[in-house]
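Q: LLM class F420-dependent oxidoreductase, please. Structure only.
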Amino acid sequence: MTTTPETRPFRFGVVAGQAPPGAAWSDLARRVESEGYDTLVMPDNVSFGHAVFPALAAAAAVTTTLRVGTYVLANDVRHPVQVAKEAATLAVLSDGRFELGLGAGRPGSERKNAMLGLGFDRPGVRVDRLVESIGLIKRLLAGETVTVDGPHHRAAEASVLPYGTPPQQVPLLVAGGGPRMLRIAGEHADIAALGVPFDAEESVVRAAVDHVRSADRPDGTSVELNMNLMAVGETVPRYLAGRIDTAALAARGAVGIVSGSPEEMADQLRERRERLGVSYVLVGDELMEAFAPVVDVLAGS
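A: Structure for LLM class F420-dependent oxidoreductase:
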């Protein structure tokens, strides 16, 4: 089912894939905020980067308007009660500036799970476990005391909010690339992160958006759509340097790329928002300086 995308205001964020030490991490958070970005988000990994919750707490402590988030937590490696507790704490300490991103675990994550003594189930099982986690986390953040004995998770009289703490409104981002995960994002999340290849053309993104929009949302609201840019003009992350032809990809209409002047890049994003509904755009920290002039053009629109 194809639906007319809702036009939302743009939001822009930076994915912090590196792990600078103390003062440099604080400086990065301040710089992201000062350059007009709305969010600073972090991937979740055992062997590289900082641990997400303490690092995001540190970033929130040195900023005032910047939202912080996980992009995304690997659902298998933490019990949902633990995730809800960490999320509630960070939401309170940041004055409501935390966004929780969850995923079922990307293909090839066996090694990461093995570091923690965990197996790596087939995709269907991991997705089922994620859906169960989402339901439990939402109930806990709403202030419920929860007892569950599900196929994947057990909890006895679990609660995560300290006495007197109101329910926490933590926006939920769910990342997915396959049809089922995209529909789950459309049904359960506030934000759907479209896991499409960076060189995908618009038809691929449109199909992903249609899966998200086809979901039956109990509250009747619509989901915010997110994508990650992998090239800003000729600027690419170091791991892609010399490996891609940005001009050729831009000429083909690859949606993970913007090109031209800041005004031309802004026009490309406006057109994609009009056609696809994608309004939340992320860039890696290596691209933030190159993309900042585009953020300045589109801020508040």
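A: Brief note, in case it's useful. The chain has one domain: 11-227+278-284.
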